[in-house]
Design goal:
Layout: H1 5-15, H2 18-25, H3 29-60, H4 66-115, H5 118-123, H6 126-139, H7 141-168, H8 170-177, H9 180-215, H10 218-227, H11 230-253, H12 256-267, H13 269-280, H14 289-330, E1 354-361, E2 371-378, E3 383-387, H15 394-401, E4 409-414, E5 417-418, H16 424-430, E6 431-434, H17 445-450, H18 458-467, H19 471-476, H20 494-508, E7 512-516, H21 524-537, E8 542-546, E9 558-563, E10 566-571, H22 573-579, H23 582-588
Parallel strand pairs: 3-8, 3-9, 6-7, 7-8
Antiparallel strand pairs: 1-2, 1-4, 4-5, 9-10
Helix pairs in contact: 1-14, 3-4, 3-7, 3-14, 4-6, 4-7, 6-9, 6-14, 7-8, 7-14, 9-11, 9-12, 9-14, 13-14, 18-20, 22-23
Length: 590
């Protein structure tokens, strides 16, 4: 993918501003002020050394005043010791502040991503998301800890030293400070070049992270081994790694020759200062030897923090690229929102009635509708099955019922309340979903079940597992309910994972149960046993089954047949079979 610097500039300008970055530090302004005060105090103590040194050279040594020499030397040692101690304290405090800022930013980004619709996650690689949460925010650590600390310390040191140089001899001070504008211009030029390269560098790192996520997971290894594509995947990874290495080199070395001019200019200052001092000695108001020595000492104190400031300016411009990537995600609009005053329904008052009123939905603007003009009423406590050929809109309808997407037109209501008006908590209590691709956490069986109800007792876990026909299998495992399910649940078969997911939903005890191909991975015997269990569980509970295997829905109170996003038939199994329409055709094909 070609990198466009102009496109990056537009992206950074849209998402990043100095005010927005400074707002991250705002909650800690009092503590930051305290750290800044320590920095100023440490810099002020550091300035005592050159002035004491001048007094030693111009007064104590020529006059051979040993007591004065001892006091002045002791003062230099005490000032250095106090400056070092204060410097260590402010480093500890500033590092703690920086880590808390990073923590806040990570949690804020994670919480925002939790609110985005399913559309964002279907359009975005998992590795890309991980790269922005982990890699990009980790890259900001240098800014909010080391860089912020060095900025304050160097800025205070430069300001205090510049004032001391002017006080010492204003004529030499003008000569010293004349190089500042040139070095600042060179530094800014190099910084802008490296900023754009850093954004490109992070994009390449995200590509590599995504490749690792996709191919070094259990499904990825199975695919590569069974397809014999391991060597090709290695070559692809090597290409991504090579591209990243090239961009890394550019991001760290671009403008290095220009930057070396700054080092040269700063390195020659002491020699030029001595030359200027020699010329001043020929004037009517010559500078003393002690003044020249103190000036060189102050220059040494000035040049290091000044060079640090230029380096910080350069690195800060690079971190703007990281802020652009993080803020770009934070600025993603939240499509699924909760009303300011959402409707809540107590669990005891939930009936489980579902109504769809002329529902319409398309995945993207300009695409044809995945669901079009669907109207359906599901009475509380009834069992409704939704069937149809592949691509008919069944699963999409399930997404809309779970409010993973909002409808484009019409409305979906639970117990007479529009889903968009319900609180998120009420919706999650009313509807339990078991999908055709159950997801299990890399945790124990008990922890996976308690994800639905953290306060569930062991007896309640066992009861839910019995209903899902999975308790006997769990009990036979060496660690029982403490067994680790493994990444993606790969220690369990497809049918076992679906039964675990079903047990997890049963534990939540919702009045509406949505089964999206929930028995698709079960063998005939287990499917029959679980169907019996579901039948007992469904008494007094609304059940909506999305099914491709028609054998699982013959006993439903109502079967709704979809085709090309529309409802084309509805009725009981016997009535639809007698019609000889789409449902009968599906039966004939099974």
């Amino acid at each position: 993918m070609t990198f466009d610097p102009d496109a990056y500039d537009a992206l950074a300008a849209r998402h990043v501003s100095m005010r927005r970055v400074l707002n991250l530090f705002a909650p800690y302004r009092a503590r930051i002020a305290g750290v800044m005060a320590l920095m100023v105090l440490a810099s002020a103590l550091g300035l005592a050394g050159p002035f004491l040194l001048r007094a030693i050279i111009d007064t104590a040594l020529p006059q051979q005043d040993l007591p004065l020499l001892a006091w002045l030397a002791g003062g230099m040692i005490a000032a250095a010791l106090a400056s070092a101690g204060i410097g260590a304290l402010q480093v500890v405090l500033s590092t703690r502040i920086g880590q808390e800022i990073l923590h806040d930013l990570r949690v804020r980004l994670y919480a925002h991503l939790q609110t985005l619709s399913l559309r964002f996650f279907t359009d975005t690689r998992t590795g890309e998301v991980q790269s922005r949460i982990a890699g990009d925010i980790a890259g900001l650590q240098a800014l909010v800890t080391d860089t912020a600390n060095e900025l304050g310390r160097s800025l205070s040191a430069v300001a205090m030293t510049a004032v001391a140089i002017v006080i010492l001899d204003w004529r030499l001070a003008l000569f010293v400070l004349v190089v500042v504008p040139l070095t600042v211009l060179i530094s800014a030029r190099v910084a802008r070049l490296r900023e754009a390269l850093t954004y490109r560098q992070q994009a390449r790192a995200a590509d590599m992270s995504a490749a690792v996520e996709e191919t070094l997971s259990a499904p990825g290894i199975i695919l590569s081994r069974t397809m014999g594509r391991g060597p090709w995947l290695t070559q692809r990874f090597a290409r991504l790694s090579r591209d990243l290495s090239r961009v890394e080199v550019g991001a760290h070395t671009a403008g290095e020759w220009q930057w070396s001019l700054i080092g040269f200019a700063l390195a020659t200052l002491p020699a030029l200062t001595l030359l200027a001092g020699g010329l001043l000695m020929q004037s009517a108001n010559p500078a003393s030897i002690g003044t020249l020595v103190a000036m060189i000492a102050l220059q040494e104190q000035l040049l290091w923090p000044f060079e640090q400031l230029l380096e910080i300016g350069r690195e800060t411009r690079k971190t703007r690229a990281l802020f652009a990537r993080v803020f770009e995600y934070l600025d993603k609009p939240v499509e699924i929102t909760e009303r300011a005053d959402p409707v809540t329904i107590p669990r005891s008052e939930m009936r489980g009635e579902v109504q769809l009123d002329h529902v319409r939905f398309a995945y993207a603007e300009g695409d044809g509708p995945a669901v079009e003009d669907v109207s359906l009423t599901v009475a509380a406590g009834s069992h409704v099955a939704i069937v149809g050929p592949t691509g008919s809109g069944k699963t999409t309808l399930g997404y809309l019922l779970a409010r993973l997407f909002d409808v484009d037109g019409g409305a979906i209501s639970f117990d007479g309340v529009d889903l968009r008006d319900l609180s998120f908590e009420t919706l999650s209590q009313m509807l339990g979903v078991v999908s055709q691709e159950p997801y299990l956490l890399h945790a124990s069986v008990a922890d996976n079940l308690r994800f639905a109800r953290p306060d569930a007792t062991e007896a309640e876990l066992i009861a839910a597992a019995r209903v899902a026909q999975i308790h006997d299998h769990i009990a036979a495992l060496p660690a029982g309910y403490d067994t680790l399910v493994g990444e993606g649940g790969f220690r369990f078969s497809g049918g076992e994972k679906q039964r675990l997911a079903l047990a997890r939903t049963i534990l939540r005890d919702p009045p509406i149960l949505l089964l999206d191909e929930a028995t698709s991975a079960l063998d005939t015997k287990t499917e029959r046993a679980m169907s019996d269990a579901l039948g007992a569980m469904s008494e007094g509970r609304t059940t909506i089954t999305i099914a491709h295997r028609l054998s699982t829905v013959r006993e439903a109170d109502l079967i709704v047949v979809m085709q090309r996003g529309r409802v084309v038939e509805s009725g009981t199994h016997a009535a639809l079979e007698a019609q000889g329409g789409v449902y009968a055709g599906l039966l004939a094909g099974t």
